[in-house]
Amino acid sequence: xxxxxxxxxxxxxxxFIDAASSRSPYDGASVFLIPSYVSEVQAAVANMTDxxxxxxxxxxxxxxxxxxxxxxxxxxxxxxxxxxxxAAGGTQVVQSVIYDLPDRDCAAEASAGEFSIADGGAAxxxxxxxxxxxxxxxxxxxxxxxxxxxxGLANLVTNLSVPKCANAASTYKELVSYAIAQLQQDxxxxxxxxxxxxxxxWPANITPAAQLFASVLQGAGSGATVRGLATDVSNxxxxxxxxxxxxxxxxxxxxxxYINALxxxxxxxxxxxxxxxxxxxxxxxxxxxxxxxxxxxxxxxxGMRPTTDTGNTLIDSIVWVKPPGESDGTSNSSSPRYDxxxxxxxxxxxxxxxxxxxxxxxxxxxxxxNPAFS
Length: 374
Ligand code: BGC
Hints:
This protein has helices spanning 2-12, 35-46, 51-58, 75-88, 121-138, 152-158, 163-182, 203-219, 255-268, 359-367; strands at 30-31, 67-69, 92-98, 143-148, 188-193, 228-231, 274-278, 315-319. By secondary structure, the chain is of the alpha/beta class. Bound molecules: beta-D-glucopyranose. Residues 68, 70, 111, 234, 322-323, 326, 328, 354-355 line the site of beta-D-glucopyranose.
């Protein structure tokens, strides 16, 4: 009897409480513009002297990016944005990045975070996740897309020779499972970060990567699920296009090849195989000295605009995750977060700390945009 009543109820409830992961969050929805990025772009435009470039740059504020919760004090701001999206009405998607693992960015220095494993960071991270849960539960009518922990699990596929990563491995896995387990609300869609084609797309890495994603999902418990994976976050690879010589001999040298190769491996491991792909700075190819270069790469341009017209049913949407103009890391070699990648000849310099505004780099990204802004 209870079951029959429940079935009848389910049949007539509004669509926003459909099982979140069974369809794309972007279907029939508008994507919310993150106010803090709109302000950053407006300030940048006000500082430009070239009026043609300024007019092009002004259009960037209309492109939705992801709001990065790279410190726990940004969680209340997520709440403000959810409230604003709710008030705007219609079906709104708010896009955000969960990015605060203890011993974060274990194989690089540039994005080391606020929590450390040695100092109670795991419990602090759980509290951070709990505070995110409290926010999304207040706004059940707003769809929330989260990318979970850029580079976190990917580092465990290839960088266990780095002591900080080896030491963090079990904690990263447990905490990503915890985040998945807690964020099962019907208005939440989760995409775990899956590195990019030039990292986990290599034949030696792709199978262990699929197995790791599946085991972390299993760790979240039998009822828990995700929508899929996010690729190319803060990187520079094309969705599809000619091979850049530095990518050889990787057969999966662009994001679509990587996704097409990864999807069946995920399916074999009972892991959902839908994707979103960051193209915010992927407009120009052939600019890196080495495939692994990631820091403020010189010559980069804004890439494909966000769209659900992806040409591939595995890909829910092209998205802009990295807010163009925010630095990947400082080039100041005396900073505690200095990473040598940010001082290489293919990295724009002088560059400010990760996440802070890098005006000349933003201007170059607009200048080199492909497709152009006009
Ligand atoms: C930084 C974060 C920042 C994000 C988006 C990361 O590299 O570590 O602080 O929020 O990029 O710009």
